[in-house]
Amino acid sequence: MKSLLFKRKSKSDFLFDLFNYSILTIGMLLILYPLFFVLIASFSDPNYIYSGDVWLFPKGFTVDGYQRIFNDASIWIGYGNSMLYATLGTLISVSFTLLAAYPLSRKDFVGRNLFMWFFMLTMFFSGGLIPTYLLIKDLGMINTIWALVVPGAAGVFNIIIVRTFFQSTIPDEMREAAFIDGSTNTNFFFQFVIPLSKPIIAVMVLFHVVGFWNGFFDALIYLNEEVKYPLQLVLRNILVQNQVNSNMMVDVESYAAKLRVTELIKYGVIIVASLPLLILYPFLQRYFVKGVMIGSIKG
Amino acid sequence: MSLTTKELSNTRLEGNSKIKSKTWIQIKRNYELYLFLLPVVLLYLVFRYYPMYGVQIAFKDFTPSKGIWGSEWVALEHFIRFFESYNFWAIIKNTLSLSFLSLLFGFPTPIIVALMLNQITAKRYKKFVQTVIYAPHFISVVVLVGMLNVFLSPNSGMVNHIITLFGGEPILFMADSGWFRPLYILSGIWQETGFATIIYLAALAGVSPELHEAAIMDGASKWKRILNVDIPGILPTIIILLVLALGNIMSVGFEKAFLMQSDLNYDTSNILPTYVYEQGIQKAQYSFSAAIGLFNSVINIILLFVVNRVAKKLTETSLW
Q: Which one is the CATH code of B85-315: 2.170.150.40, 1.20.1560.10, 1.10.3720.10, 3.90.1300.10?
């Protein structure tokens, strides 16, 4: 086999490789460059950004944008809120997901199909935005953290992924042996299943952290006080609605200068907001790939 | 979906009275497992099943003071009002164009990229490319639309700098309804192509190496092997994902369209989900908005069933 692989490349294969490597490299650069540009622009003098002189390196290096961002309370409040929502939401959802997935993974669990259908029906049918909104309103959950962390907890897809994992990693013999030793279902779950499930717990935690960190829609419809806004809503005001907090530039005089500083702040907040996920990226990549693989086995 | 037949037949085989008591013993022995499920079952009953009951407001004239049950029935009035409204066809056209075009351009790209990546023998380089192209998946929609705004800004954006460099006139991308769809689709490709290759790369890894060896023996070039070995090998995966995507054709991503929407591009950016939001949340026309939402999901379900049926007939691959 080896000799075959190392056989001299034919002309058409050589052309193919040349084409293949070039196209992939160009494609990769097209993905990478915008990200890289945000980074260098956030450190550049906004006058150069405006004149189009920033291309490969920061020009007129400055941390002015970051200073303004760090001095702005709303961004830090948003940061804190997002961390709170992500932590609490992840905790609730992942615990519920694990608890629901375990019985569904057991062949000797009577009613397994019934419960599976009970969950899976919600993938095809749903009440939709307005009935859900009215329910949350009736429950008095508007403008509370609970509206963000409870209704969407333990999604069907996640339950299915975790169930698949349990089915393929927790052998029946192990449970039978533990039961002969007098273990109960609860004991077995906490003493054996959970410790064996660290990889899938990591997948679930990261799925949720990213989801909560990046989500803005629930906060948009359910929250109405700015002090409760998660980071993404604060960002929406700055990046999409162009509303930079006026106290971020009390010292900026002219209208034109204000526009420039706004631009600089925009590049800066993109970096600041993405930083936590950037730090997590090595884990994110590994575990998200794992999650997609497990998810694609069944369902 | 895969667990049904075998287990059903098992229970059916055992389905007599003697076994019934055995089932009962099993339920009692595993009572803890029901307690495990309880919180999530309650959660689903309240937050997923109760709103389905609440969908009836689409057929009523809902007023908060009277509640869901107390409001009066108006039959199909809200639906008829929607169908007859002056922008009904525009909304349908916008929704369908946006999702069909997204699918047309967005669906094949990850397949092509996965096939190309699969041919890369330099392991490190492949890893590096993967690391880069997966990254945009983790960027939030808000940041993505923010990036569109700064890059496409008419006076400071990079894209317009390039256009003026070549002697063109700056384009007001974000304020032009003609640009809404291309921008929506291209930014989607930029963000999701890489991540979507994962599933195809996994499928490609499962293509039997013997087939490739045999093809090499026969002197098949790389290009020929992609066409005759790789693509047939991952066809079932492609079909399943295509069925799923077609079934979801009416549920285009709301969030990005909503964030990109402005009065200036409303002509093309007004799609069903954003219209539901606008009517229901912003204008508090609950019943009208619920009716539009229901209309949307009914079409979705019908589409999913039809597409699945067609795929089953044509290719013997289907979701269920």
A: 1.10.3720.10
